[in-house]
Amino acid sequence: MIRLAITSALALALAAPAQADTLIDNVDGMTLDATGGVDRFTGLLVGDDGRIVQVLRRGDKRPGKVDYFVDGKGQFLMPGLIDSHGHVMGIGFGALTLDLSETTSLAQAQAKIAAYAAAHPDRPWILGRGWNQELWGLGRFPTAAELDAVVGDKPVWLTRVDGHAGWANSKALAAAGITALTKDPAGGKIERVATGGKPTGVLVDAAMDLVEKFVPTPRPEDRDLALATAQDLLLARGVTAMADMGTTIEDWQAYRRAGDNGTLRLRIMAYAGGTEAMELIGGPGPSPWLYDDKLRLNGVKLYVDGALGSRGASLKAPYADAPHTRGLRITSDTQLKNLMSRAALDRFQLAIHAIGDEANAGVLAAIEDMSATYTGDRRWRIEHAQIVDPADFARFGRHGIIASMQPVHQTSDRLMAEARLGPQRLTGGYAWKSLATTGAKLAFGSDAPVELPDPFAGLAAAITRQGPDGQPFGGWQPQERLTREEALAAYTMNGAYAGFAEGRFGRLVRGERADFLLVDRDPLLATPSDLRATQVRQVWINGRLAWDAATAKR
Amino acid sequence: MIRLAITSALALALAAPAQADTLIDNVDGMTLDATGGVDRFTGLLVGDDGRIVQVLRRGDKRPGKVDYFVDGKGQFLMPGLIDSHGHVMGIGFGALTLDLSETTSLAQAQAKIAAYAAAHPDRPWILGRGWNQELWGLGRFPTAAELDAVVGDKPVWLTRVDGHAGWANSKALAAAGITALTKDPAGGKIERVATGGKPTGVLVDAAMDLVEKFVPTPRPEDRDLALATAQDLLLARGVTAMADMGTTIEDWQAYRRAGDNGTLRLRIMAYAGGTEAMELIGGPGPSPWLYDDKLRLNGVKLYVDGALGSRGASLKAPYADAPHTRGLRITSDTQLKNLMSRAALDRFQLAIHAIGDEANAGVLAAIEDMSATYTGDRRWRIEHAQIVDPADFARFGRHGIIASMQPVHQTSDRLMAEARLGPQRLTGGYAWKSLATTGAKLAFGSDAPVELPDPFAGLAAAITRQGPDGQPFGGWQPQERLTREEALAAYTMNGAYAGFAEGRFGRLVRGERADFLLVDRDPLLATPSDLRATQVRQVWINGRLAWDAATAKR
Questions:
Q1: What angle do CA A154, A156, A161 make, to 5 degrees?
Q2: Distance CA B313, CA B362 (A)
Q3: Which residue in the set A223, A249, A284 is minimally distant from B224, CB to CB?
Q4: Nearest-CA residue of chain B relative to A277?
Q5: Test mutation, A7, A12, A257, chain B, max B CBs within 10 A
Q6: What's phi and psi for B233, nearest 5 deg?
Q7: Of the candidates B260, B284, B290, which has its C-beta nearest A224's C-beta?
């Protein structure tokens, strides 16, 4: 960023309309227009408030004097990407937790644990995940003593790769009061030495709770660090705004702290985790847009069913690979309508998790039922809308429903989905194009940290229905592929619309916030594999440099 | 407020240093100087940011052009008053609750209840207090049927004047599931008809809980209304800032909503109700000053003992009127130090409730113990410091302790205090002058809604040690009287200091926020009874008119 000249106070007063402008010029710029078509430009003039004053094309006269001038050197400039479904704090905490999944021996794991503990001396507990004694060739579970040898002064608690066992050191066992006298809980097992029953350090399934209830909740400092970490990770992948699904009051307070002290860079559209958090965070309705449109509580996240992989998704017909079950509802129709009413009455937006076709039909029916009472611009969001009965497609096009979907889930899940659903129901799976065609607004996200928060991977999946390996040939259910422009809209302007943010950000047009990326290639022209490899060089949010590859911690 | 002229953008740019000034001129102005002496002036020039640009004296040249000009017409202008101990939301909720204490017959009470219910159709429950069947000449408790006759469509719950009984209508009894089959709880009694055991509607002592656990918690709208009401009540008495003792997360969210939407007029220095609320509200430390210094979480309120009236205050020697008890500690020395450490470690300010001489000695010992570890500018606050052993007076002068005291408690409590303490211990009661003389900083407040939030009554009590009736002749323990200047300092600059706000507000000097009152008399010259009758005409906060007697709802 080059500071060209600071004009005098007098000149500033005369130079209507803007007072401290930034000109980003000499770029290969692109945005979508109001109808989703591509608009190309070569410069952006941004005002002191971070809003775009003028979009400049080749040949347009440049302002004579500006306060800041940035030479884009011909780089490609595109709108900041909006992830419409993620978990901001989960991304941060996930990144901060010790990850042992790449270790290939106990000694290597021990070294990594020791280094991590040394690097984080102020952590009251050392927490981690991902170990697998099979990969270590150990032939047995590891022991508390093997942990004590590297961290003996504070509790250590590390969960196995499958999440079904935990490995504690002696301090953690002591904190939990686990001794030879402790009985195995129902559904769980305390691994013990052959004689005397002394615990070895590994606790299986329900026995893990014996320790986990003593793991301290994160401190505010930890939350602030998680937020800073999540922001870095998201900006590095070009995400400038995220719909945060399941915001707690603790999360919200961390967002406000960052807003108050000027370290909130990412835009966060928050959906509270349940109606109690909604009321505590928002009060009598959605919050205002805070901190130059960086933060707003839009509404509430509700759950109707579980996930497909664990057969918790609620299906109309039995699972193909488990004919005794159709999954289950977390929330009944009556409960759902009660919760929806409570939120809609105060004009909170509803974002409702529905994976299975029965769950989606249930949400559609609830929306149809409530739309007569709760009129106006509601933008009912169905989160995931993963498996939909084709007979229900058309219902998505009514009442202004938003299909908030995650392209990478399709490529990650497809073999599992084929097993769960059998061949007959696949046409209703991840049916982006079909739902969009009905008139539903399609907003794309990652569900990070469940998946990596990488919108370029999402864009590639969206236009190919293929994974990073190019499989399957021709794409999975390829009739659901989108055009590049449709996919980009789902990651930009539609994401803004889905969060009541259109006109504020999502497109690079006069009056919107200047949120843009400088990247090393044109995503509208790159091959799918090149698109996945897009490198983000700089991220600008609200007209200010928010992340720079040249200086970022990696 | 008269708008004289809007200067042009060009003239604005040239008219250094301020851009949108307000001149309040032709006033009989007064503030305290840095040493607590009186400084008189005739005009204030206030910048666009609400800070004082210049204090103008007779003969000082006035600026040639200002954006707003206010002619004070010779009125008396004084600093806004700081109430260093109150409960903002309690003041608002208290004012919003139906008050039956003035009713003299059942019929009059019924009429008042009916009118209140009609005036508040959106309240899910009708709540009130203050009834007394003795004053009504009823010779019995009132009945549910007598309430049903005036409010039958929603629950009504009214507590007796002494707080030891509640009167429910049939809807409230039904909501609580109370029938003839319900047994009396331990320590409580359900009033019943002679035959059949049907509840009459009145519940005594512990039986009140049967209903109270079903009384809905306030909705965010209710909290917002309570805050608006409290602000009106406080501003009307000249209070421009309050230390809010025992802030909950719900309170804080209401304050932030008001700050976010521009309706926060009062300055609030918040002390969280306990360390959990402290951490949730403040995070890793005190919040920043928010909304132009209108809101900050300074620290945490802790309790060491109870109150003198109920013999909950912890005394060194037995109560004079109950020799079997010395009162009791709510928090032990060890607990207190643990809680203080947790707060002080993260630089939260401590505000510790201590009424009895034993409790005050305990807090002093804890502060002395911690001062070696938690060094620097801590401003340990002792709230009330009501009864202090004269042997402990000098300890208040060390470690920067603040004695946060409430003058009106002295006049309200004196007969009760004499009964509880006997004649020997009165020299340590409400010992403002003695504590200030040791070097402790004296900050005055009201404890509203326990007392009325009226600083003029407090000023009069502070300089007389007499009640509004002029009793006792010569003043109670008159050696503790303060000068007017000392009392005013305790309601202004010392209150700011006690909240880490010195330099921001509390005095009318260049660089501080322009928080001032226009009043109808000079509190430094009025007789004590005239001082109590001071009428506040206008309240200006941050250089803007915040309350005006001419237009205020009464």
A1: 170
A2: 12
A3: A284
A4: B250
A5: A257
A6: -65, -40
A7: B284
Contacts of B287 in chain A (CB under 8 A): 257, 260
With a cut of 0.90, is the ipTM above it? Answer: no
Rounded Cα gap, residues B351 and B358, in angstroms: 17
Residues in chain A: 554
Match 């206030």 to its residue by tokens.
B46
Q: How high is the pLDDT of residue A3?
A: 35
Chain B residues whose beta carbon lies within 8 Å of the beta carbon of residue A272: none
pLDDT band with cut points at 50, 70 and 90 for residue B8 = very low
CB contact under 8 A, A287 and B260: yes
The pLDDT of residue B16 is above 70 = no
Give pLDDT tens digits for B517-554: 999 999 999 999 999 999 999 999 999 999 999 998 65
Beta bridge partners of B518: B77, B538
pLDDT in tens, A527-539: 999 999 999 999 9
Query: Taking CB atoms and an 8 Å limit, are B283 and A9 in contact across chains?
Result: no
* DSSP state for residue A318 in the 8-state scheme: -
Structure tokens at A45: 């003039």
Beta strands in B36-183 (DSSP E): 38-46, 52-56, 68-71, 76-79, 81-86, 98-99, 126-131, 156-160, 165-168
d(CA A412, CA A433): 19
Beta strands in A124-238 (DSSP E): 126-131, 156-160, 165-168, 188-192, 199-205
CA distance A520 to A78: 11
- pLDDT tens per residue, range B72-93: 999 999 999 999 999 999 999 9
Nearest to A12 among B13, B250, B279 (CB): B13
Element (H, E) at A45: strand A38-46
**Model pLDDT, residue B553:** 65
Taking the Cβ of residue A186 and every Cβ of chain B, the question of whether any pair is shorter than 8 Å is answered with no
Pick the more confident residue, A503 or B101: A503
* Residue recorded with tokens 């802790």: B302
| Residue of chain A whose alpha carbon sits nearest to that of B222 | A284
Contact B220 A279 (CB under 8 A): yes
3-class state of residue A63 by DSSP? coil
Contact between chains at B221 and A284 (C-beta distance less than 8 A): yes
Task: Tell me the average pLDDT of chain B.
Answer: 93
Q: Which of residues 260-279 of B touch A (CB under 8 A)?
A: 260-261, 279
How large a percentage of chain A has pLDDT more than 90?
87
Beta-carbon separation of A281 and B219 below 8 A: no
For chain A, say whether B9 makes contact (Cβ under 8 Å): yes
C-beta atoms of A12 and B10 within 8 A: no
**Cβ B253–A280 below 8 Å, yes or no?**
yes
Q: Does B118 touch chain A (CB under 8 A)?
A: no
What would the pLDDT profile of A463-493 be if each residue is shown by its tens digit?
999 999 999 999 999 999 999 999 999 999 9
Buried b (16+ CB within 10 A) or exposed e, B185-219: eeeeebbbeeeeeebbbbbbbebbebbeebbeebb
Residue B334, beta-bridge partner list? none
**Is the peptide bond preceding residue B318 cis, with omega within 30 degrees of 0?**
no
Report how far residue B359's alpha carbon sits from residue B527's, in angstroms, rounded to the nearest whole number: 36
User: Closest Cα of chain B to A410: distance in Å?
Assistant: 38
Q: pTM for this structure?
A: 0.90
Q: Per-residue confidence at B21, pLDDT binned at 50, 70, 90?
A: very high
**Distance separating alpha carbons of residues B478 and B209, to the nearest angstrom:** 44
Which chain A residue lies closest to B291 (C-alpha atoms)? A260
Q: Are A227 and A295 in contact (CB under 8 A)?
A: no
**Interface contact A280-B223, CB threshold 8 A:** no
CA angle, B217 as apex, B92 and B179 as ends, to 5°?
125
